[in-house]
Amino acid sequence: MASEPLIQLEGITKTFGTGSAAFQALKGVDLTIDRGQFMAVMGPSGSGKSTTMNILGCLDVPTSGVFRFREVEVQELNRDQRSLLRRKYLGFVFQGFNLLSRTSAVENVELPLLYRGEAKAVRREAAMHALDQVGLAPWAMHTPAELSGGQQQRVAIARALVTDPDVLLADEPTGNLDTERSVEIMELMCELNAGGITVIMVTHEEEMAAYAKTVVHFRDGLVERIERGARSGTILDGTMKKGKG
Amino acid sequence: MLGATLLLALREIRRHLMRSILTTLGIVIGVAAVVTMVTFGNGVTSQVQDDIASLGSSNFIIWPKNDDRSSGRPFDLADVAAVEQQIAGVETAAGNIGSSATAFYNGQDLKTSIVGVNTNFLRARSLRIAEGRAFSSDEEIAGRNVCLLGDRVRQEIFLPGVSPIGEDMRLGDVSCTVIGVLETRGQSGGGEDLDDRVYLPLKTVQRRFRGTTDIDYFIVKYDSTYAGSAIRASLTRLLRERRILEAAEPNDFNIIDTAQINEAVSETTGTLTAMMAIIASISLFVGGVGIMNIMLVSVTERTREIGIRLAIGALASEVRLQFLTEAVVLCSLGGLVGLILAFGATYVVTEAMNVPFIFNPAINIISFLFAAVMGVVFGYYPARRASQLNPIDALRHE
């Protein structure tokens, strides 16, 4: 796949707190992510992977350094400008699904379109299409409580991709799922990636990371090493991992 | 977007229906109280004004001043005649003497008020004859046993559809002939039934019921082209002279201008209405605090939801609008229910107290808008708090 830099992190640092209580979570991260990439981010807790994801998701800003996304210097933007960036180009999938309870699947998926000011009919059609993509069209009217964990995560993925985002940010998307559901979700992510969406995924499971094209390892607030091409071997051998889980 | 926000707010309210009802109860009661108080107050004011207007304008009422030890020196008809004849600008002066008795007719009886007046008094007080005739001057001079019935007396002791004119009835020990019936007057501001009266010539009541030549009070009607203050000065001078008061002695009688009463009473009822409205608005304010409290709870409860919304790209202003809309919708619904409640309550109260129900669109609209503004005022802080949440922390919130 032709690659061009979509995201560039240069010398990113992030410090929480001030004075003696200050804690430096990121100590100068350099990372380039090309369009069409499927990147897994791994590392022990406290290694800075979640902080990096928050910065990549435009939810947080670095203390210093340059974060370039679509050639926009995100660290220069204010809160609302970052919101608009998220709204337009980013989709989020969380470990805890984070769906609105007591709200039907289709309405959850419609939510990002609501903030884009789309008309009701357009919203409904796009949301149904997204649910169809994740194989949940028949469950459109069910609330999260009536769906299994795997189904809820697929609703969350539908919500993330309904806006046709450039980047899908997934934070431990399979963390709350059993192996079988995890594999389904990973295969779905691979499909989406094949369709052109850049996927960045935090995980601590080697099997899940194996689906990615690139695996970035974090340690002590720095990028420790980057492995490439891990994906090619695993996609042919998807059944093997069920046994391991 | 606004439509969707409105729908969302309604859904959120429906979701916590019981809580929403209890929360808005403060606003409902506040609005209902304000509107009921003001509408009822307006009704009372208007009724009192009507009562006073029925006294006639350009009127003085004069009666002896009572002190602690004795009732004041009374007036008599000679005083009335002197006022009428000697003061320029006076059109009529008419005395009044009251008593009470039980009226009997055809086995029916009714305890009622007896009023002794002459025809000029009826005219000055705009008491109109509905049926029959007023007293003739012969009946007045001779003090004959003839009477005019108030509407209630007629209804209580005469059969409907049968004319009481020409019938003989008994008032206590006195027998008298009914010569007319007065138009209905309703209740006075003091709650007296003005129709529960029997009118007889002044002299008849003096002689047969009170055994005196005194009168209780008299009214003076003057030409409205004259200044009330000039008439009052002449009246005071004449009456002091007739009662032989030294220059140093104070007046031993009262003179009151009906226009003055009107003003004083309107002012009093107006002040009372305003006071009741202010007290009622305090409850509206307290209701607003309740709204703020529950909105803050709601923001805390829905922290995660707010995090999700912010993460998928909601602007701070959009989250703020959502919570503000919820508060305003809650308050507006409360206001609406309050108005309906007020309408019912005012209807019942005015009906029970015989006060006219004057629907006042202004106070209804103002109260409703005030309730909505309460939503903005008390919803703003919680909404602002929601919009300023950090999405990362909000998403982590359990």
Strand ordering within the main sheet of chain A: 6-7-8-3-9-10
Helix content of chain A: 25-40%
| C-alpha-based Rg of chain A, rounded | 18 Å
Average pLDDT rating of chain B = 88
Q: Quote the distance from N terminus to C terminus of chain A.
A: 31 Å
Which spans of chain B have pLDDT < 50 for at least 5 consecutive residues?
none
How many strands, what sense, and barrel or not for the largest sheet of chain A?
Answer: 6 strands, mixed
Shape of chain A: globular
Q: Using a beta-carbon cutoff below 8 angstroms, give the protein chain pair with the largest interface and the number of residues from each chain.
A: A-B, 27 and 20 residues
Account of the 3D structure:
The complex is a heterodimer of chains A (245) and B (398). With 245 residues, chain A is α/β, with parallel strands linked by helices. Chain A is 36% helix and 26% strand. Chain A contains nine helices and ten strands. Chain A has helices at residues 49-56, 79-89, 105-115, 120-133, 149-161, 179-194, 206-209, 231-235, 240-244, and strands at 5-16, 23-34, 38-42, 64-69, 72-73, 90-93, 167-171, 198-202, 214-219, 222-228. Chain A has a six-stranded mixed sheet with strand order 6-7-8-3-9-10, sandwiched between helices. In chain A, strands 2-1-4-5 form a four-stranded antiparallel sheet, covered by helices on one side. In chain A, a hairpin with a 2-residue loop joins strand 9 and strand 10. In chain A, helix 4 (120-133) packs across helix 5 (149-161) and helix 5 runs parallel beside helix 6 (179-194). Mean pLDDT of chain A is 88; it is low at 232-245. Chain B is α+β, with helices and mostly antiparallel strands and 398 residues long. In chain B, 58% of the residues lie in helices and 18% in strands. Chain B is built from 13 helices and twelve strands. Chain B has helices spanning 2-15, 17-54, 77-86, 119-124, 137-142, 151-157, 202-210, 228-242, 258-301, 303-311, 316-353, 361-387, 391-396; strands spanning 59-64, 75-76, 90-105, 108-116, 129-132, 146-149, 168-171, 174-182, 197-200, 214-215, 217-222, 253-257. In chain B, the strands form two sheets. Chain B has a six-stranded mixed beta barrel with strand order 3-4-9-6-8-7. Chain B has a two-stranded antiparallel sheet with strand order 2-10. In chain B, helix 2 (17-54) runs antiparallel to helix 12. The A-B interface holds A 54, 57, 59-60, 79-80, 83-88, 90, 92, 94, 98-100, 102, 111-112, 114-117, 120, 159 and B 1, 4, 15, 304-305, 307-318, 391-392, 395.
